[in-house]
Amino acid sequence: MTERAEILTEASATVRVARRAVRPAWQEAPSTPAVFAKSALLTLVVLMVLLPMWSILVTSFASRQTINLTGGMVVIPRELDLSAYVTILSGGQVTRALGVSFLVTLVGTAVSLVLTVLAAYGLSRPSTIGHRPLLFYFLVTFLIYPGLVPSYLVVSGLGLKDSLWSLILPNAISVFNLVVLRSFFMGIPSELFDSARIDGANEWAVLFRIVLPLSRAVLGVVGLFYAVGYWNAYFNALLYIDDNELWPIQRVLQSYILAGQAPQLSGMSLPGFNAYPPTLAVKMAVVVVTVLPAVIIYPFVQKNFTKGMLVGAVKG
Amino acid sequence: MTETSLPAPPARASRRWLRLKRDWQFLLMVGPAALLLFVFHYVPTIGNLVAFQDYNPFLGDSALGAFLQSEWVAFDNFLELFEDAAFWEAVRSTLAITLFQLVFFFPLPIALALVLHDVASARLRGFVQSVVYLPHFFSWVLVITFFVQMLGGAGLLAQLLRQQGFEPWDIMTNPDSFIVLVTAEAVWKDVGWGSIVFLAALSTIDPTLYEAAAVDGATGYRRLLHVTLPALRPVIVLLLILRLGDALSVGFEQYLLQREAVGRQAAEVLDTYVYHQAILPQQWGIGAAAGLFKAVVGLVLIVAANKLAHALGEQGVYSKS
Known about the structure:
The structure holds two protein chains of two kinds. By secondary structure, chain A is mainly α. Chain A is built from 15 helices and no strands. The two termini of chain B are about 15 Å apart.
């Protein structure tokens, strides 16, 4: 009996020690109101982000009946009606705009990532010829922003109006991302390069065989930054793309939801789906497909944010 | 120069040539990015000279030709700009919004970081972080759509109020509360993202400092005041300087997108002024003058703020070395 009791007290003692290990010995236990206030605050913050997303998602699946019943936005899901998605994804302006945005995002991210990696590696050895002036050439762009009018004149002067390249080339190089990558490359121990060079590798081989495989995490973060920038591009499309067949999704979303102009939809319907889903559900479906790509890629890259941000902040 | 991991170049005569021969691959790698920056950053920067021209795009057979043949008018564009009441109105609202957000936005990421840092459970902290970073990746079109659907005249809040028998008011179209609205949107989008840098600074604080302070009898509040905040001070100063240098830009798409809803009076900031007064009516000279005004004021502000930071013994954005 006593033996068992002793074991029990010992066990509870370890539990107590383990709990205390989270909070250092010198720190006072937080008061109940403080704990309550903190939990309430964090719950509120999380809800403020998740509730709108949830409501928009649920409304996009709602039937006309449900929307009439709630008087608009729906919070409690009653059914899973895919008609709105069938309507927007079976041809017409939204489908086309999604295609344009995917194309611009894929090509743009590839171009940006390749050029930024090359430049960052080219600038990662302080002993190379012209290193200081070249670095200065890149960093000065942080301080001087050319302004809207001359940028517009240059892009239209190059004949890029109504070309998808106008959504890619002007912002293809982010010097911030370049600095992040450069700092990361500079942190790779040089012994790794030296042995490869002794084995006869040239700089390209060093970059592709040694540096890039070591940089997957930071490349993921920088790639996400670029991709999100291209996917979210709205203003460049407003400036440079007059032809609404070439509009990216953000431009269509703006004209449809904020300016209230109905897009051309296909008017097709698949058997079993409502040919005329409620307008609100269609609108919310457009919002969902615009949010979705970011939400899908995000979890894969998120854990590396702090790393990437810090490298840029500390050494930049 | 000590970091060199390459074979040392031989001394004397053709040293430069040998270095070039050794390093040409690096130059080739930097080339394409440097070229893009030249075309889309340096050329427009020089193109700001349009501010001193009566630029006529129909002269010559290209934009360059038009630039070379347009008439130089010295400071006429600036004089015309400075006589425009709408311009000063835009400058005034821009500065008002900057000031408002300095008070009601700037401290929030710091507060959020302090609260998050205090959460003991790593899993809970990770979850909250993933959620609050997410809106940073939404476009302004999306953020404003979210706000319209939640707080607008036909949004979720108005629905609930109507069901309870209240008369909803539409914050999305009210010019008087516009400054609160844009700040709320900016907070919703970026408060989580802004907290990252403070969380990182918090994680570098040596825990023995807290321990020593506690042993000396400092309570939680005192430790916050004397250990935590001093550790955050360089980051806070840095971000304040950057914000000050950007005092004349408060974001652009956000205002452009809501200008229709709340009207020009409330939503016209300096950048949207350039868009509506220069690009749409093709008043290139005046638009470039406004842009140049903004760039020069921004540069002066950031240099001044940095000087001030140095004078106060802070590191600032850049140092003299």
